[in-house]
Write a structure and sequence with these properties.
By secondary structure, this protein is mostly helical. It is about 70% helix and about 0% strand.
């Protein structure tokens, strides 16, 4: 639900572009992507976020994970 609510400004901008001929700049697109991306990441489990951004993709534990165990 948070992702849907966070995309409300994006939908408003898309309708403004379609109905009123508004144009998007680079900052507008980057800002929209960052907002939606942040909502998606915040809704994920911590383990999934760690896997997504981990540099170690071969299944071996990194130093930080070994310290936690």
């Amino acid at each position: 639900a948070a992702v849907i609510l966070a995309t409300e400004p994006m939908w408003a901008a898309l309708f403004a572009a379609g109905l009123l001929g508004e144009t998007f700049g680079t900052k507008d697109v980057v800002g929209g992507v960052l907002m939606v991306g942040a909502c998606i990441v915040s809704g994920m489990k911590a383990q999934d976020v760690h896997k997504l951004f981990s540099q170690d993709h071969d299944g071996m534990m990194g130093e930080a994970e070994q310290e936690l165990k």
